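Person: I have long wanted to understand how a fold can be written as tokens. Underneath my words sits a plain record pairing an amino acid chain with its backbone structure tokens. Those tokens are not coordinates but codes from a learned vocabulary of shapes. I should like you to check that the lines agree and flag anything odd. The protein I mean follows directly.
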Amino acid sequence: MLIDTHCHFNHARFAEDIPECIERAHAAGVMQMIVVGAEREGSEQATEIAERHGPGIFATIGVHPHDSRNWDEATEARFRTLADHPKVVAIGEIGLDYHYDFSPREAQVIAFRAQLRLAREAQLPVVIHCREAYADTLQILTEEGADELGGVMHCWAGTLDEANQTVAMGLALGFGGTLTFKNAEDVRGAARTVPLETLLIETDAPYLAPMPHRGRRNEPAYVRFVAERLAELRGMSFDEMARLTTGNARRTFPRLML
């Protein structure tokens, strides 16, 4: 079986057909999916979707760096309650995004640190978003003791040196549709090199659909294409990669075992 460790069924593009998407995922061997929160409302929706759509659907809660200007005490209090929900498997996606700077960088750092501390309090792993901010992200993760939290650096796009620093901190790397893109040699270089136990697969649906579906809406069924490409890069069979990444996901997110 496969696990899509990062999808957004709480996105408007899935408003009409989540059950059908889950059926297609199951047909492709994807039996568990993690719906990721990116702001307070989206985190509430992710948890509700996990409750409504069966035992294989889980959620995370977090405020994305794009929305970190909206981080406040009320959101933190609500997340503290949601973190106790048995289907909430992580705090995320949280982090820094210096590409768009939709929120001021100071606000991004404040929200990031606060949510890392919430993860420590809740004893949950973290799902990290990082774009053009690896130096600051890694520094904050180190200062906040991320090595004691565990989790994943979602949508890996850094250098090999940054990948080595990340896995040395005890975090996994999430590989998605970009692994299949023609111009993504740096991503494939990291995927070929990092320890096997740090590999996770994801879609980031509805974004970043892999080849041969690039340009269309992504969905969890397509994580199979990521697993196939990752298996090829590591000289493994598809079944071996499926078993490996499923085991890695369950170690990274212990509540998936419940």
In short: The mean pLDDT is 97. The chain has one domain: 2-257. Strands lie at 2-7, 30-35, 57-61, 88-97, 126-131, 151-153, 171-175, 199-201.
